[in-house]
Amino acid sequence: MSGYQGPMRVLSGIQPSGGMHLGNYLGAIRKFVDLQNEYDCHFCVVDMHAITVWQDPVKLRAQTFHIAASYLAAGVDPKGAAIFHQSAVRAHAELAWIFNCVARLGWLDRMTQFKDKVGKDKERASVGLYTYPVLQAADILVYKATHVPVGEDQKQHLELSRDIAAKFNHDFKAEDFFPLPEPLIKGPGARIMSLRDGTVKMSKSDPSQNACVFLSDDKDTIARKIKKAKTDAEPLPDKVEGLADRPEVANLVGIYAALSGKSDTEVLSSFGGQGFGAFKPALADLVVEKIAPIGDELRRLEADPGFLQQVLTDGAERAAATADPIVKQVKEIVGFVA
Ligand code: AMP
Ligand code: TRP
Questions:
Q1: Is 3 part of a structural domain of the chain?
Q2: Among the listed ranges 6-10, 124-128, 188-192, which one has the minimum average pLDDT value?
Q3: If you compute the radius of gyration of the chain from its CA atoms, what whole number of angstroms results?
Q4: What digits encode the pLDDT tens for the residues 263-314?
Q5: 46 CB near ligand 2 (under 6 Å)
Q6: Secondary structure class of 201 (helix, strand, coil)
Q7: What CATH number corresponds to the domain at position 184?
Q8: Which ligand is nearest to the CA of 49?
Q9: Mean pLDDT rounded to a whole number for the chain
Q10: 248: domain range?
Q11: Alpha-carbon gap, residue 337 to 335, rounded angstroms
Q12: Which residue's CA lies nearest to atom 6 of ligand 1?
């Protein structure tokens, strides 16, 4: 058991590698908004993670602003939470190197996300992609963050962060120096699936534009994507058990539940037995009601890059003020000369 006594702190990050979608919103950003009043929060745009796979430099810059604007549009208050881009706080890279020397090859060899991303072409993957979860551990622990709101897909990376923290504390006899960070995953929306295939997660990199509802989609586009979502010919089941083996239907019911604050059971008690001709328009209306206003605010913010730059610069300054003294202590613990 960790006896860590430091303050409760939240950190999370999103890669600027594409447009923000409903999965990012329900799995991550919406939680950020809920946590900001309770915790000291740090929300990062992880541009150094994004370049583990090729990014066009012009797009990378625009997408970094896009993610920052999405945090704001969804309701994160930059006066409370520090919103910043990872590359602007050099402590992340410094700690990542030290953690590269703490983490073991065997641990990284088990990372399923790396295996999924490289497929059979491991030889051609960047070294950065392999050590990606080590940098993620540094993002978290450079602030001694205790809580990390993320979607279900990040569970294994969070376990690795805990392993790195524990091994550092143990190897350097620095008991409870780093907390063992807790993932905050639970809740509806932790795993939103593609609208075209209920067996793969909704992802920025999906080749089909219709797989994702993006926060930037206008009302008509959102409604069209929901109405085109893959389903089957049967009516909705009356009970949750009836969703087994119907991944696309389970996903749409899950989205309705997550956005309406109801359980799957409650959604099915309203729509069970009805066809998709009734359910899809109701779901489209709900998604439009919840997401379109965020899109409007996102567009307004993206039209003001000067303001976004200011938010990022202020956020980075505040983040560095927390991280720098922690890295200084780490360097002393490791034995680097001051
Ligand atoms: P990424 O887009 O991979 O940088 O992910 C940013 C955040 O969104 C992480 O916390 C992910 O776990 C979360 N996330 C990404 N895709 C989904 C999804 N389909 N469902 C739920 N959460 C997701
Ligand atoms: N790996 C995360 C993702 O793809 C992004 C990320 C990078 C992150 N650093 C982090 C998430 C630190 C939480 C905390 O979704």
A1: no
A2: 188-192
A3: 21
A4: 999 999 999 999 999 999 999 999 999 999 999 999 999 999 999 999 999 9
A5: yes
A6: strand
A7: 3.40.50.620
A8: 2
A9: 96
A10: 209-299
A11: 6
A12: 14
pLDDT for 273 equals 95
Nearest to 252 by CA among 235, 113, 217: 235
**How far, in Å, is the centroid of ligand 2 from the Cα of 242?**
34
- Indicate which CATH number applies to the domain containing 261: 1.10.240.10
* Pocket of ligand 2 contains residue 96 by CB under 6 Å: no
Q: Kindly give the number of the ligand 1 atom that is closest to the alpha carbon of 201.
A: 19
Taking the CA of residue 46 as reference, the ligand 1 atom at the shortest distance is: 4
| 64 & 174 share domain | yes
Which ligand 1 atom is at minimum distance from the Cα of 14? Answer: 4
* Residue 4 maps to a domain: no
* Interatomic CA distance for residues 73 and 20, integer angstroms: 11
Is the same domain home to 173 and 270? no
Domain count for the chain, please give it.
2
Whether pTM > 0.90 for this model: the answer is yes
**Parallel/antiparallel/unpaired status of strands 82-85 and 147-149:** unpaired
Residue closest to 315 by CA, chosen among 78, 27, 37 = 78
Where are the alpha helices (H) located in 229-304, listed in sequence order? Answer: 247-260, 264-271, 276-302
Rounded CA separation 334/337 (Å): 9
pLDDT at res. 204? 86
- CA torsion sign for 269, 272, 274, 276 is positive
Ligand nearest to the CA of 215: 1
Do 275 and 175 sit in the same domain of this protein? Answer: no
320 shares a domain with 183: yes
List residues bridging with 13 in a β-sheet: 44
Whether residues 327 and 274 fall in one domain: no
Encode 161-188: b = buried (16+ Cβ within 10 Å), e = exposed: bbbbbebbbeeeeeeebbbbbebbbeeb
